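Posting this for the archive.
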Amino acid sequence: MPRSSKTVVLVANGDLRQSANQVCWPAQAAMEKKLAAAVAGFGRKL
């Protein structure tokens, strides 16, 4: 049986409008930081 990867891949379906990206990027970055910390708690890497 193959070993499982310890990497979790985040796939996002985002709003590609420039205005949306500029406004929402700080919230996205904060969410990714929190998610990475939670995933690390399970011994995985985001």
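Residues 18-46 form one domain. The first helix runs from residue 18 to 40.
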